[in-house]
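Quick illustration, no need to memorize.
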Amino acid sequence: MPTPKPRAQSRPFCFSVKGQVKILRLVFGLVASLFCIADGALIYRKLLFNPSGPYQKSAVHDKLVV
């Protein structure tokens, strides 16, 4: 009777190389999503409170006196 081959011990998926890569991709995806939301909120806030562009002061001596 032949002896059976010993089975390789399987590691949990989260400790395998593929598992680690998938976890890193998930984390980077979440961080990128948060940055996109924050960027959108800042742009929305800037456009809401300053819709016509930057405020430019004009000097007093630039005004024409009639």
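The chain is about 50% helix and 0% strand.
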